[in-house]
Structure formats: structure tokens, C-alpha cells
Amino acid sequence: MKVEIITIGDEILIGQIMDTNAAWMGRELTKQGFEIAAISSVGDQYKDITRAIDIGFERAEILLLTGGVGPTADDITKHTLCTYFHTALVFNDEVMQNIESIFLKRNLPLNQLTRKQAYVPANSRVIMNSAGTAPVLWFEKESKVLVSMPGVPFEMKTAMTDSIIPMLREQFQVKEYLRRSYIVSEITESALATRLAEFENRLSKGISQAYLPYAGFIRLRLSAWGEEHKPEMKQQGRKLKRLLGKNFIAESEKMPEELLGDKLRKKHLTVSTAESCTGGFIAHKITLFPGASLCYKGSIVSYDIQIKEEILNVGSKTIDEYGVVSREVVELMALNVAGLMKTSCSIAVSGVMGPDGGTKDKPVGTVWVGTTYNSVINSCEYHVGNCREENIERTANLAILQLLKMIERKK
Fold first, then answer.
1. What range does the domain containing 295 cover?
2. Secondary structure percentages of the chain, helix, strand, coil, to 5
3. Once rounded to an integer, what is the mean pLDDT over residues 360-378?
4. Residue 324: helix, strand or coil by DSSP?
5. What is the pLDDT of residue 409?
6. What count of Cα atoms within 13 Å lies in the side-chain half-sphere of residue 365?
7. How many angstroms separate the CA atoms of 129 and 111, rounded?
8. Which of 55, 190, 365, 367 is the most buried (most CB within 10 A)?
9. One domain for residues 21 and 167
10. 181, β-bridge pairs
11. If phi over 0 gives left and psi between -120 and 50 gives alpha, with beta otherwise, what is residue 119?
């Protein structure tokens, strides 16, 4: 069953906000067995929205729209849908009660613009928005469905999870989507594709393999539609892991930082970080997930040499002799932060993120990562690239994977 996602708003087109809605919807709908036919974004213009709907109905049975349903003049989705489905706006008492309830809970005064949101297209099925004031609108055209939702991510996710996905599953038959995901590191995408070329060529019809490169690692995905592929998916997964060898990290949909957190909690380990070039980004990634407080103790962001010397106890002679970006410095940073924080594991990084600051011996992108596990130290040099933002992301991922692999080896 094919779905097209249409996100509406000038703010998306001009880059003022990122379209996170489509990514989330695509991921969740695929898990539920729906096939995403296309994703498109249009501005707040009647003809653009109408054309997008026409094209969408040619490609898919289900259209999911987000955005343009607020109370202001630029929110024209509701009026466009009235014209498209040849209907008019009517006042809905239930929507008004929902709006009043929300404003009462927030101790906010109602205004005329907000009351306008209680007007809905007469021939739509109205679904209450439990997280906001703009209702969700469900239209049917022959055997196809269009659903219009708010663009606010939290409101959209609540509506999708609580109402829309269950209703779509009830109305449409879907095939089970099978997926196996493998995290791979220390190999380029082209080298990996070369290694797996024969394996990929021998996959049965209906099973596909995809390469999803991230900064510092690759996610491999085997996928198929229909439960009849389950036995072969399992068999091919075993073959794939053997072919990946030492480059295989884990079979999981999770990101490396979440895998690290799981591993630390399972083994009752703790971790601390000493970050120079990443400026606290590793700490941020590790603490994104619930339960981080059980294993993560804290960080020393030692961006300045003085902090490395006075707090992390890295001797000035060591820095003078080897330089800030060196094996010797990150090893001391990693060992000393673990001692200061009293943790069983640690991560330390120091590098040249760019665009300036590189030298002939240590060009932009040079990074040293030190990791400890029960006082055992491991340090590696990486060359991560020339783009500052990507270098920070790549360094953080490589550092997390380095510690994850270190813990795995010490089973």
C-alpha cells in the first residue's frame, strides 16, 4: 500500500526549518508495512498544494499532509482542501471544546484567530488533536485517503501514533516489512560494495541490500516485503555477518551512542569524556537517550591548553614535546578523566577540526582518540576530512565506536 508524504510551508522551502516530519513519518510508516512512494515539499500557495495532491493521488493510495493548518493568514491548507474537495467550512462544537480545554489548561485567553480553527471542511472526518488546537482532517476520494495534520512535530507524531496509523491499518491491507540492519566500520563504502558484490548478486528476488553511509560508519540494510521472506532473510543475515568479519560492529537499528549506553548498563560500567576538538558533542550524543544517567558521569571540555594542564593534569612538557594533537596527550586525557570522575571507561579526543589550524605534519582532519576500559588504554589516529561540522560528527562517532569495540573484545 503506497503512501505519499507532502509537507507544506514556505519556511521549509527557504531553509528556515528542517523537514523532520517526513523522515519520522517515512520511518514509522515503513515499520507498519506501508510503502513510501514519494515525499514532496511545497510552499503556502493554492496552486502548488493542489498540483502536489493531484500528482500524489496518481502515485499513491494514501496522501499524508502536514503544515499550513494554523490560525494565521499564511495557513491556507484547510481552505485549499475545501476547494479541492468541493465543500465549505462549518463550525464544529467538539473542536471548539477541545480548543477551550487546551487554553484553559495553559491559562491562556482565547482570541478570534484561535476560534477560527473550530471551522472544518463539511465533508471531512474530524479527528481531535489531543496535543494542539488544529484538528486532523480525513478525506476520502473514491478508494483513496488524504489526511491533513498540523506541522508541529509533536502534534503530528501524537496524531499519527494514536489515531492515523491505527485507522490506516484498519482500512488498508499491508504486507509485513522485514528489515535487518548492520553497523559496519573501518571500511569505505566502495570497498564494502566490492567485497559484497557477489553476495548481493545472489540475493533472491524480493530481497534488497542498501548502503547507508554515516560520518564514521556505514549502516547496511537487508529488506523485503512479505513474511514469506523471513527464513531466507535470517539465512542471508548469517552469511553477511561472516563476510563483514572484523568490520562488523552490531546488528541493530540503534545508533552507536545508544548501543554504547546499552552495553555500559548491561555490564554495570560507567563512562566519562574529555573533549577538546568536539567541544562536548560526544557527551551530548551519549546523553540523548533515556537511562544515560546510570552509566554516564560527566565531561571535561578542555578546549584550552590551560584546562588540559590544570584540570586534566596533562603536563606542559608532554604538550610541548608531542603537541596537543598526539597519542601521548589523549592517553593522559583519557586516563586522568577516568580517575577524576571515578569511571570504569573513558573517551578522550584532540584534533584539528578546521578550516584553519592545520600544519604539514598535522593537517586539518587529524584526530587522536583515546579510550580506556578498566585502566587499559587504546589510542588511534584518524583523518576525518576538511569540513568542520562533519569532522566533529565523524570524530564523535569514531570515538564512541572505538570504546564500543574495546568493550566487546573484553567479553
1. 256-409
2. 45, 25, 30
3. 96
4. coil
5. 82
6. 10
7. 19
8. 367
9. yes
10. 221
11. beta
pLDDT score of 380: 97
What's the CATH number where 103 sits?
3.40.980.10
402 and 330 inside one domain: yes
**Quick one: 157 and 226 in the same domain?**
no
- Distance (Å, whole) CA 346 – CA 4: 45
3-class secondary-structure state, position 282: helix
pTM exceeds 0.85: no
Per-residue pLDDT of 26-39, as tens digits, reads 999 999 999 999 99
Grid cell locating 296: 554516564
Q: Which helix (H) or strand (E) segment is 93 a member of?
A: helix 93-105
Q: Decide: 42 and 55 in contact? Cβ < 8 Å.
A: no
Burial of 321 (0-12, 13-18, 19+ CB in 10 A): exposed
Strand partners, 90: 120
Average pLDDT over residues 136-153: 96
Q: How many other CB atoms are there within 10 angstroms of residue 300's CB atom?
A: 21
pLDDT on residue 369: 98
DSSP per-residue letters across 97-156? HHHHHHHHHTT----HHHHGGGEEETTSEEE--TTSSSPEEEEEETTEEEEEE-SSHHHH
Q: Give the end of a domain, one of 251, 274, 305.
A: 251
Same domain, yes or no, for 228 and 308? no
Q: Which pairing describes strands 89-91 and 119-121: parallel, antiparallel, or unpaired?
A: antiparallel
